[in-house]
């Protein structure tokens, strides 16, 4: 007979209801901390960082540099997202699409969210500074500060916060570029310009789609201040039109050739046309179409740019 077998009539202990509840509660808390980092949004941060890294290193990227750059950037971005959600907890609680977030939903406390965000940001900045280079860490630090300490408090004060918020949103490819080169050069500024201009029609479409939510929370976006949407549509069109020539600049600075130019031209014309439709007919349908195309535009454009740079 096995020495570790239970005696006759004695059954092995099975998990109790309280054990299962503790396990479930821990799993839910872990999920809430993950949610606090805005993983879907920060996937875009990592994709654009990766694009900048490979565009600066067409001959290849060492595995250690790749891992340290992406992990460090992800930690800083996740920390910034957590601190942003702690700061915006009151307005988030007033909007349907954000009221279920961990902090306004009461599942995580303010102190927990704050220390979690600070810890992630500090570890990420340290990893970038010591395992990559100080320039990449400085750009990531500028992203963190401008997003949390500039954009976030201004969001409830002025519609210009959308424009200001596009600055930290445009810096991830610069983090990737500086991780590979150690410096900010003209191609990095071109990548910044593309990202900066792309965000404007993207966010203006979101602002129109959720204008009632933003109005209820007292956030003074342009779509809230001017309910007819005329200037919202005009600005979406202006920024989409400005994006098109800027998206062609990678060829001028040696990052791409004719194949990329063809893709960028086609995408740019379609973006302008959809922005024009939204400007002329400010409806939920035209705003949604513009928004959906904007999230398709960027990966296709960057994919074409990286492919042209590395293989074509």
Give a short overview.
The chain is mainly α and 312 residues long. The chain is 77% helix and 0% strand.
Please state roughly what percent of the residues sit in beta strands, choosing from under 5%, 5-15%, 15-25%, 25-35%, 35-45% or over 45%.
Answer: under 5%
Unreliable parts = 1-10
Q: Write the H/E string, N to C.
A: HHHHHHHHHHHHHHH
What would you call the structural class?
Answer: mainly alpha
In percent, how helical is the residue content? over 70%
**Head-to-tail CA distance between termini:** 70 Å
- Name the average pLDDT: 92
For the biggest sheet, the summary is: none
Treating each run of at least 4 consecutive H or I residues as one helix, how many helices? 15
Overall shape: globular
**E-strand count:** 0
* Backbone CA Rg: 23 Å
Structure description:
By secondary structure, the protein is an all-alpha fold. 77% of the residues lie in helices and 0% in strands. α3 (63-87) packs antiparallel against α8, α12 packs antiparallel against α14 (258-280) and α14 (258-280) runs antiparallel to α15. It is globular.
How would the blueprint of this fold be written?
Elements: H1 17-36, H2 39-56, H3 63-87, H4 89-94, H5 110-132, H6 134-154, H7 161-170, H8 172-181, H9 186-209, H10 211-217, H11 222-225, H12 230-247, H13 249-252, H14 258-280, H15 284-310
Which features does this protein show?
15 helices; disordered N terminus; globular; mainly alpha; 312 residues
């Amino acid at each position: 007979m096995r020495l570790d077998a239970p005696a006759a009539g004695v059954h092995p202990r099975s998990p109790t209801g309280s054990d299962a509840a503790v396990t479930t509660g821990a799993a839910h808390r872990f999920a809430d901390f993950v949610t606090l980092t805005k993983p879907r949004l920060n996937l875009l941060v990592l994709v654009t960082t990766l694009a900048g890294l490979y565009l600066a290193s067409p001959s290849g990227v060492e595995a250690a540099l790749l891992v340290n750059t992406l992990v460090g950037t992800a930690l800083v971005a996740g920390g910034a997202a957590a601190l942003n959600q702690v700061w915006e907890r009151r307005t988030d609680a007033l909007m349907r699409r954000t009221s279920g977030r961990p902090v306004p939903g009461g599942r995580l406390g303010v102190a927990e969210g704050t220390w979690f965000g600070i810890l992630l940001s500090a570890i990420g900045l340290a990893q970038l500074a010591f395992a990559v280079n100080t320039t990449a860490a400085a750009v990531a630090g500028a992203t963190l500060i401008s997003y949390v300490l500039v954009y976030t408090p201004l969001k409830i004060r002025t519609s210009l916060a959308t424009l200001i918020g596009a600055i930290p949103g445009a810096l991830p490819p610069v983090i990737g570029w500086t991780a590979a080169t150690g410096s900010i050069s003209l191609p990095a500024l071109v990548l910044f310009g593309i990202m900066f201009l792309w965000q404007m029609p993207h966010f203006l479409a979101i602002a129109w789609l959720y204008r009632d939510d933003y109005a209820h929370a007292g956030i003074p976006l342009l779509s809230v201040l001017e309910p007819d949407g005329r200037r919202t549509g005009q600005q979406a069109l202006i920024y989409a039109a400005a994006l098109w020539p800027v998206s062609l600049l990678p060829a001028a600075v040696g990052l791409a050739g004719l194949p990329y130019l063809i893709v960028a031209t086609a995408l740019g014309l379609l973006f302008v046309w959809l922005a024009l439709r939204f400007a002329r007919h400010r409806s939920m349908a035209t705003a949604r179409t513009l928004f959906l195309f904007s999230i398709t535009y960027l990966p296709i454009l960057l994919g074409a740019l990286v492919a042209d740079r590395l293989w074509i």
